[in-house]
Amino acid sequence: MSYTMSILEQAVKRNPNEPEFHQAMTEILTTLQSYVDARPEYEKAGILERLVEPERVIIFRIPWVDDAGKMQVNKGYRVQFNSAIGPYKGGMRFHPSVSLSIIKFLGFEQIFKNSLTGLPIGGGKGGSDFDPKGKSDREIMAFCQSFMTELFRHIGVNTDVPAGDIGVGAREVGFMYGHYKRLVNRFEGVFTGKGLTYGGSLARKEATGYGLVYLMDEMIRQHGKSLAGQIVLVSGSGNVAIYAAEKVQQLGGKVVALSDSGGYVYDADGIDLAAVKEIKEVKRGRISEYKTYRPNAVYTGIGSPDDAGSGIWSLKCDVALPCATQNELSEEDAKVLVKNGCFAVGEGANMPSTLGATEVFLQNKVLFAPGKAANAGGVATSALEMSQNSMRTSWTFDEVDHKLRGIMVNIYNTVAAAAQEVGCEDNFVVGANIAGFKKVAEAMLWQGAI
């Protein structure tokens, strides 16, 4: 058995009952196999043994009191995976599905994503099984303050800089940052995604969605086509989905569908983003409410008699942008997309396509941009926020947006070149994994047995 596959086998055995983490390791190590096995210095230095083992895992209890005066207890996590090229950097996720496996898969992916940005940031991730849906602002604050009471001792501007993720927006970041500041008695850029009045960066809210579309636009143009005039499906209706849809529209594409955990809405005339922003960002409502704004739109609930079985992916499109959550796009969904003529897929979420779906896209020559490359715009702009905080300055929206576009175009070119170098032209999964791995592995070699 090769060095790479033996490490994968060992890692799966050492981390039982962690399917998402196993999936992430399998996807990455399988594509790295020929590259790593041809370089014995990696085996000699135990690069992969160290790469699949987090540098530190913090798990803690989060007690808080709800509005009824009842004590609630949640579980908190921070996985500080790899700091070879910079301080740990990665979001916090608040969602009932959060587990050690999910946080480890996200942190592992973050190593390669952060490396691809070209910026000096390592990989980490955190969160809790707390569900912010239906909670009052006071309950959210109580939870966030209790969460930070433990976490503050493990993070710092040169150690670990968290950000938002699913369930963690400007409100949650504000509560956590405020409590951190009170505990350490310092005003410093230890969180990104902050409000503009206290150190946040313009364009951070839009960055992941915009960055996804900038990379897709470059990839499609390099293959003789354009986003203009294309029919686009975007799953999700949160931050990433909304601003991906906005940028697609700005570049001349037509977004015809968005979704949430309850179902999806189809608008043949093109999604009205002003309505979606009011529903999701102001009212914190459900996508089903879209029909009250656009009566001609069609809403389909998950599991309803009208559901075609593949949800939003049953609709015809030219380009698909899964921006909701992990493993939302199955092998069968991928086959439906291919059958319906979809020629490009970009992952706005983290690992939204199953391994089977990814294989279907690659076999059918679909232009497929994996999440660690395609959705790196968010963390890249977080790093730009860190730079602004360090310099005690702020850049204009256009300055940040220009830097973001440059980073995403550079990521595409780096990934494409890495794929071509190993004889896998247009396999951007292989290209992203190798390009992200090289920088981290070299840094680990130089730093010795740590």
Strand-helix topology:
Blueprint: H1 3-14, H2 19-37, H3 40-44, H4 47-51, E1 56-65, E2 71-82, E3 88-94, H5 100-116, E4 122-128, H6 137-151, E5 160-163, H7 170-184, H8 204-221, E6 231-235, H9 239-250, E7 254-260, E8 263-266, H10 273-282, H11 290-293, E9 298-301, E10 319-322, H12 331-339, E11 344-346, H13 355-363, E12 367-369, H14 371-374, H15 377-391, H16 397-421, H17 428-447
Parallel strand pairs: 3-4, 3-5, 6-7, 6-10, 10-11, 11-12
Antiparallel strand pairs: 1-2, 2-4, 7-8, 8-9
Q: What would you say this structure looks like, in words?
A:
With 450 residues, this protein is an alpha/beta fold. The protein has two domains: 3-186, 3-Layer(aba) Sandwich (Rossmann fold), CATH 3.40.50.10860; 206-365, NAD(P)-binding Rossmann-like Domain (Rossmann fold, 3-Layer(aba) Sandwich). The protein contains 17 helices and twelve strands. It has helices at residues 3-14, 19-37, 40-44, 47-51, 100-116, 137-151, 170-184, 204-221, 239-250, 273-282, 290-293, 331-339, 355-363, 371-374, 377-391, 397-421, 428-447; strands at residues 56-65, 71-82, 88-94, 122-128, 160-163, 231-235, 254-260, 263-266, 298-301, 319-322, 344-346, 367-369. The model has no long low-confidence stretch (mean pLDDT 96).
